[in-house]
Structure prediction request, 767 residues.
Amino acid sequence: MITRTMPFPDNTFVPLLVLALLIVATHAAKCPQQCVCDQIQLTVTCVNKNLTEVPPTVDEITVKLDLRGNDIQELPTGAFRHTPYLTHLSLQRCNIRRVKEGAFRGLGRLVFLNLANNNIDILYQESFDGLSSLKQLMIDRNRVEEIQPGAFAQLGFLNLLSLTHNQLVYIPNMAFQGLQNIKWLRLSHNSLNYLDIEAFAGLFTLNRLSLDHNELQFFPTETMTRLPEVTRLDLSYNPMTYLGEESVSMAKLSHLFLDHMSLQDLANTAVSKSPSLTHLDLSHNQLRVIQPFSEGTPKLARLHLTGNPVYCNCYMRPLREWAIRSKVKLVGTCAGPLHLSGELLEAIQPPELRCQSQEAMLKAEFEEASRRGPPPTEEPERKVKCPSNCVCEAEIHHSSCENHGHTKVPRGFSPDTRLLDLRGNNFHYIPSNSFPGVSQVVSLHLQRCKIVELEDGAFSGMKGLIYLYLSENLISSLSPEAFKGLPQLTYLHLEKNNFTIFPKGSFKLLPGLLALHLENNSIAKLEANSLNGAEGLRALYLTGNVIDHVSPKALEQATDLDTLHLAGNKLKEVPTEALRKLKNMKDLRLSGNTIRWVGPNAFQPLGISLRELYLDNMGLEKMSHSSLAGLGSGLRSLFLEGNNLEEVPDLHPLTSLEVINLADNPLMCDCPLLPLRLWIEKVNLKVRATCANPPELKGRRVKDVHVFKACPGGEALPSAPSAKTPKATKPKPMHLSRAKQGKMLKSKLPKKPKTKVAKKSKRLSMA
Ligand SMILES: *[C@@H]1O[C@H](CO)[C@@H](O)[C@H](O)[C@H]1NC(C)=O
Ligand SMILES: *[C@@H]1O[C@H](CO)[C@@H](O)[C@H](O)[C@H]1NC(C)=O
Ligand SMILES: *[C@@H]1O[C@H](CO)[C@@H](O)[C@H](O)[C@H]1NC(C)=O
Prediction:
């Protein structure tokens, strides 16, 4: 051969070169015009080229094909049959609407497929046929609303399937059948409100499931129980309100995210069937109180409660004790009460979790009792009796027919019902015996039902009823027999009705009544014996009526009364006589009445029992020096803001005061205010009390002005610290200006009763 070619040495070289060039050129021609091809890495990149089809001339040996940002619309069957060696295929932003059956057929080596940001709405049965090596499939940000059975049946090696930001509403049974190696399934940001019981059937290797940002209203217990290997489950941002008994039953689950939902309550056994749980995130829900978890979660180490309105009183003590005992770290802070608000739950010791008021205490006791009460009887069948147009939840014993336009009280609720919610219907009146067969109801809601009348015995038979809500109706009177047959009723809500007269004598049949709410009615008077028959009443709420007269004998019978709210009425004076027999009064509110003057000993009958006194926003012009006489070491809070006081009465007997509010009063910084100035010194408070008058002292802190030192008895006061203080030679004549000025004075007293200064000042002033 060589010899034969030797005769044309000059010419043979040329054709060989041409041939070589030709080969390269042919190869180069295999790179589609708009694309960039790397012959070494074997990649082809055709990004943002408006291609309307998969380029047919891609070299067969290509392993990575990037087609992002084109306009392909539809992937036909066998779209990639010329590139069987592909391992990576990127098809994001290609306006793909439809992936035909067998579109990827022949891609037996493909490992990674990204279809995000297209318009795919249905995943057909054979859409992903042939992808027998695929490990990751991304279909995020499409419009998928339907997954046909068997869509993923050929993807036996898939580890990750991501379907976030689609329009899935429900997942049918067996939807993911065939994913024998799946590890993580991402379904976040869809509209899922229902998962079939077998929705995730066959996913024996799944260990992570993301279902956050969906519309699930209930924890899908049955569905989840079929996922034996799941360790992380994310259900954040679903609108669940309640987590029932043993809802989470997942053997290997270690991390459960239930944050940013609407949880108002959870059963103490909610996670007790998930023995591997270590982290439970309940942050950003509506939980006020959380009970200690029952046994069953020995590994639990962290409980996140951040962003819940956790109310740190005695209800929370069992949880805190349990957390200490079980070494569970509580993450979060208290939302209330005021003195604990913002405190880290971890920093609070159980004895600090207390209930102050009697009512709260009783509520807590009641809840404790019902928690320890007989265990709920086994339900023979899961189906629960429920009238039409109502929703009944067997597990939590709640039945609701809220806002359904019922004109008659529906019948046929399960006898187990504990909470019956009928608010927002149009009953107009409640006939006798309207609630047969529901003797276990504890809480009955009848707000906003346009009720004008309650017939005698309307509620009879409700032996377990404790809370009755009749607020926002049109009731103007009550028959004495209206509440017949409610031996346990404790809290009665009648606010926002049409009462013009106090419904005297209607509570005789309620021996257990502790709290009566009648706010925002139009009651004009409290006549003698108003509380006849309500001897056990502890709390009476009458804020927002038009009461201008309280008979001296009005409250006589209720000697246990500890809370009386009369704010926002038309009283002209403190009803001292009516308070005469109330030796247990703790919380008296008279805010917003038009009481201009409080005389001597106005609160004397309340002696040492009174804890809180509200006398704010009344236009109060004068309080007698001894108006608070008789109130002693019991008083904790005194509210006097928003009045027209130039002076304040003697505060010296109030040795346990923790909160005093004098804001928005035109305080006259002159000798008559000396007792306040001395008192401030004595209690060593950092008080920012400001003067409104005389004009040259306007805006100055009472504590800083020099004027009091010149008053008889004020000599012992320390010199004013500021050089700017004008010298007050003589007390100035009263200069009356009604200019309102002031700041909130609110401070805690130190425990030690007297300071050295106080003793000194006493001695000096006596000298
Ligand atoms: C793709 O089409 C858009 C709209 O028709 C056009 O603005 C853009 O220049 C085109 N891009 C290419 C690479 O042809
Ligand atoms: C109830 O009170 C409202 C407002 O005070 C009044 O308009 C209405 O007529 C009253 N209804 C009845 C039934 O008394
Ligand atoms: C009474 O009415 C006032 C003003 O509308 C409202 O702020 C307050 O919450 C009402 N109180 C009750 C108990 O309904």
About this structure: Residues 1-29, 372-382, 722-767 have pLDDT under 50 and may be disordered.
